[in-house]
Amino acid sequence: MPEGHSVHRIARQFDRNFVGQQVEASSPQGRFVEGATLISGRTATEVKAVGKQMFLEFDEELWLRVHLGMYGAWDFAGEIVVDPTIASANGRMGQTNQRGTVLPDEPVLDAAGENSMTSIGAPRRARVHVRMSEQTRGLRDEGAQWPPPVVGQVRLRLLTDLTCADLRGPTACRLQTPDEMLATIAGLGPDPLAGDPAEGEERFTAVVRRKPTPIGLLLMDQSVVSGIGNVYRAELLFRARQNPHTPGRDVPEQIVRGLWRDWVRLLSIGVETGQMMTMDDLDPDEYRKAMASRDDRHWVYHRAGLPCRVCGTAIVVEEAAARKLYWCPRCQA
């Protein structure tokens, strides 16, 4: 499931490529025909991401709410203007940096041959029609079909003169009034990038400190905090050396606040790099490996049975609310 950093990256691409543009909408799959008809011909006016959900406004106060869920994805084609706050032309990170890490000058490619800093949303193979441009729109590949052919089950296609976005497999894709949109957001926990982080810290701390639910489950509860998924949950708890089974109300306040502040930091890094980078103090070679491979960028996630990077104890994996929970039984005892 895409975690919060991916949704914020996608929202920023919509802001640069769709907001202010008249949009043609269709539902090739046929499951959103009525909604697409209402959107088509309107101008996109605003986009916001809160946690794992994106809200795209069209004129006359019509909002499109999209929750990608476990299997949803946006595929972009055409001429894409890369958000310069995410990456610079040479693929380097901007102001957000890993503590103690010296960044390489050249782009780092992952196993799929992709530079995640200039990818859209969650790292994925670039579509053949996508042309990346940081400041200006380039020309589409000469001879490429436009609009691009529909591939697979596309719930919603949004199309401007230059850019195409195809939505596949979302958990939610529906239109909302402004009041409905605000009610949806009101039911979500704080997101560091969708409000005042200091206010979010107070809200998060107050909720966690009164809950008997294990902290490992609270971090995945989108009504408690927005955007954290399985990867960030495991890594945040390890970085705090916090046992995931401790009831929220029993976690010391300074640890709860530390979890929030670490989430603020890791989310910003994730948005900027396109990767859920959770390890600090990497030298340039280690950083390259971490950017290229998930196996080298996490402390405990997806490392069941492997030795803890700190103490050498085998990392444990167990089921928690139907999701895999990775943790070190010694460091997080």
Describe the structure in your own words.
- The chain is an alpha+beta fold.
- It folds into two domains: 4-183, N-terminal domain of MutM-like DNA repair proteins (Alpha-Beta Barrel), CATH 3.20.190; 190-327, Orthogonal Bundle (Helicase, Ruva Protein, domain 3).
- Helices cover 26% and strands 18% of the residues.
- The protein contains eight helices and eleven strands.
- It has a five-stranded mixed beta sheet. Strands 2-3-4-9 form a four-stranded antiparallel beta sheet, with helices on both faces.
- α4 (197-208) crosses α7 (253-273).
Structure in a nutshell:
The chain is of the alpha+beta class and 333 residues long. It is 26% helix and 18% strand.
SSE layout and pairing:
Layout: H1 4-17, E1 24-26, H2 33-39, E2 44-50, E3 53-58, E4 62-67, E5 73-81, E6 130-133, E7 156-159, E8 163-168, E9 172-176, H3 178-186, H4 197-208, H5 215-218, H6 230-239, H7 253-273, H8 284-292, E10 316-320, E11 323-327
Parallel strand pairs: 5-6
Antiparallel strand pairs: 1-7, 2-3, 3-4, 4-9, 5-8, 7-8, 10-11
Helix pairs in contact: 1-7, 4-7
Enzyme class: lyase
Keywords: DNA damage, DNA repair, DNA-binding, Glycosidase, Hydrolase, Lyase, Metal-binding, Multifunctional enzyme, Zinc, Zinc-finger
InterPro entries: FPG_cat, FPG_N, H2TH_FPG, Ribosomal_uS13-like_H2TH, Znf_DNA_glyclase/AP_lyase, Znf_FPG/IleRS
CATH architecture of the largest domain: Alpha-Beta Barrel
What's the main sheet like? 5 strands, mixed
Query: Which percent range describes the beta-strand content?
Result: 15-25%
Based on secondary structure, the structural category is alpha+beta
EC number: 4.2.99.18
Cofactor: Zn(2+)
Pfam families: Fapy_DNA_glyco, H2TH, zf-FPG_IleRS
Protein name: DNA-(apurinic or apyrimidinic site) lyase
